[in-house]
Every structure is written in C-alpha cells, then in structure tokens.
TrEMBL record:
Domain of life: Bacteria
Membrane spanning stretches: 26-49
Keywords: Membrane, Transmembrane, Transmembrane helix
Protein name, per record: SpoIID/LytB domain protein
Compositional bias ranges of the Low complexity kind: 461-472
Family annotation (InterPro entries): SpoIID/LytB, SpoIID/LytB_N
Amino acid sequence: MRANTEITRSTGRGTRRRTTPIVRTLPLPVLVSGTVLALAGAIGLWQILPGQITPTAGAGHGRGMSQVGAFDNARAGWSAEEILGHYYPGADLGQIGPTTIDVRLQAQDDATLDTFAAAGAQVAGRTIGPGDAAHLTPLPDGGANVVVTAGCDGDVLWQAATDDPFVYPIGAGAGRPADEHLTLCGGTAYRGALGVALDGESFRTVNQVDLDDYLAGVLPAEMQANWADQGAFEALRAQAIAARSYALAETRYDYARTCDTTDCQAYPGTVKEDSRSTEAVAATTGTVLLRDGQILRSEYSAAPDGGRPADIETFEVGPAPSELVESAPAPAVPATPASPDLTIEALAGESVIDAEYRRIGGANSAVGEPIGPEMLLPQRAGTYRLYTNGVIVATQTLGAQVVDFSTLLHLVPDVGDQLPATASGRPTLKMPQGGVPRIAAPGVPQGLQFPSEAEVRGEPVHGPVNPAAPGAPNGGPHGPAAVPSVPGVHDGE
C-alpha cells in the first residue's frame, strides 16, 4: 500500500517542497531455530544471508526510522529521501558545510592518551617521527602534559606542557591515508585528532574528527554494509542522513558532542570501515534532517515490525546549519630551518629537564655530562635523566629538580646497573639536614625541593587500553554506568 508524504529540501535557493510516494512497510517475520528474532537495540548489528535478515542483538525502542523497514522499502525500490519522508513526516532536508565533531571515547575513560601514527604526528607545536608515541595527561587549565617516546614503550625523547591538548595527524583535512591515522597503543586507529580533557577529576579521551570521516566508522557499525549487495543501498543512504543529523543534534558533554558507544551511536574508529557504507556517506555529504530550521535528533532503531512514522515534535533538535563551525585544519608546525649543525634535541624541542640542565650551567655544572636519554619514572609519574655526578628529575607538579643517586635508587630501584662509576664513590651531591637535595657547588641554586617517594607513587595509575580491538565487544546497549541515561537511540528502552 502506498501513501503520499511531503518532505521539503532547504537549499541555497530557498525551500523546495515535493510530494514523495512512500511504501507502507509490513512486518518482517524472521525465524531462527523456531524463535522470532529480537532485533538489535544497539541499532543494526546485522548479518545478511540470501533472502534473510539475521540481526545479532535486541529490538530497540522503536522510535523513528526502523532499519528493518528501511531495508524492506529500499529493496522495493524507494529512495533514501522517500524512506526518510515516511519515518520523519514534516521534516525538511537541509545542507551543511564541512564540519568536525568531538567524540568521547568511553573505553579510554580514566586512562592517559597513548597514541602514534606510522607517518608521524603533531603535538605541542612539534612534529614527532614515524612510530613515535605521544602520551598525554590532561591538566586543570585545559592543557596537557606531553611525554614523547620512541614507540609506545621506548625511551623518552622529550617532555613538555602544552595549551593544546590534542595530537594531530601529520596532514590536515579529511580522508587521510591509513598511515596518518592515529592509533592507540595496544588499540585501534582513528581518523582526525585525539586529545584529552578533564571531567571533574576524571580523565577523558576525545576524537576530534571530520563529520564524514566519523560517519565512515559509524555506518558499518550500525547497519551492515553488505546491504548494498542486497539491493538496499538506499537504506544505507537513509542511515547516513539519519546518523549525521542525530550526531549533530547531540549535546552530551562540555568537552564532546557525543560518545562512541551505543548510548549514542556505535563508533569503533576505522576498524569496521567498508567502501560500500563509505560510498553511502559520500553520496549524502552535508545532508541533514531539519525541524523548523534546526537539525533533528533523528532517532532510529531496529524495530522488527518495520516501525511507523514518528511524531518529530517529540524529538530534540540541535543547532541550525548556519550555527555550525566549519572544519579547521590541524595547526601548522613551523618549518624547520635547514642547518647542518641542527641536533636531534633541537629538532625535537627542549624538554623540561633540558631547560633545567641549561639553567644550572650544563656540562660545567655540578651534575656533569649527560648519560643516556630521558627515562620514565614508575607509573609515568615523570621523567629523569642521568648525569655523571647526579640526576635531574621532572614531575608535573614540581617541575625539574636535581637529586643525588641514592634518591633516584629509592624511587627507581632497578636503575642501579645504569649508574656511572662515580655513583659508588663519594657523592658530589649532598643531602642536607631534612633530606632536601642540594647541589654542593657554587653558583647553583640551593634548597631544591623534590617529592617524596609517597608523593611520586601517589600519582593515579593510567595507561593504554584496547578499545574496539577487532573481535572485542563494544560495551553493550547500556554502556558504562557513569553515563547518564539520555532519551535517544540506545537507552535500553
């Protein structure tokens, strides 16, 4: 049975209204071992077999577009616009320009950000080399502490504090090649930039990504890409428009618009990207659903009976297209001047320890010549570097401090084999009464404070995690308990 539903399209030349024929969807009986399937509440985790739809999880809330109905209508020959006109009667189709979206990566909650790219990356205004890892910890002022290592677990190359708490790909713009994608140490890869934020005292990781790059990860996680091979490519197009609208109408957090779990929309990074669903995203670039000129939070589900038209007045709306901020490229890293004498340290930038070493006189100071690279303190509480006559240690709270070898041994017991021969003789650095390290040489500041072992080891334990690794569960339809229940696509209703 057909019905007539009007859908309008907002363009640069005004609003055009047209009449759209819609097919009324019928219930889709699907039996597996004699049991009627409950379809995915996490909207659209499917497997397609010839003549059959086999979803993998529960039924969803039934509001807005039914993915089962979209599949059925698409195979009957209806376009994405006709499908959307049926499920969101009274909505307009609008157009937006290129924009980015900030996504909270919930599996990274309360962890440091540890990331690298095969082609290198940008962080704290500097370029890091291929495979070098940036480890970011958020700071209360909105910035981040950055430690860069050779690989995820290698030697420390440099450390700095920065006002910009993001790591950027080496090249700007959307659709970057795979070797530029930022990969979590021990985890999956993401397009765009990765950064950190504080939510109260809790660490959060945020993916700042071009909207269509984001949808390239969302679509195949929400609707099976091989529907395109089953005559239902228009269902994928409809899903792309609905997902784009839903994401832009979200306002979940101060630091991110949406999240990556089925509490919002499933987004596992690049791991499920598929050329067929990416084509559907590209075919609908910039197209969104509007209600009264504002982007519609277009809920959808896997309702097994094909669903029914929604009352869009009950759905929330987000900004108007004109209120969106257009995409900005990654900050440019200043070009390195050509110089045959440029050192690795100069290319990488001066670390906190380097700056302190230079301040106290460098090789002419009481600590002497450097021995080896900077290393991490236990639990990533800071870094240290050995010198012939002492040690410089840097922590986030106290900055760089000069200590003697015995203090370092107390903090890092395994460092003994690395100590120079001078460490076994009379120490050049002396501990005055009260245990405060001090340089016993003229011209060097006295009374340098250094944290106790308890202070160092009292730092929170953070480290890399493995969200969305291939084959790993994505957290289920309810997500972490700390996330407030927000009416929408995945509320377990």
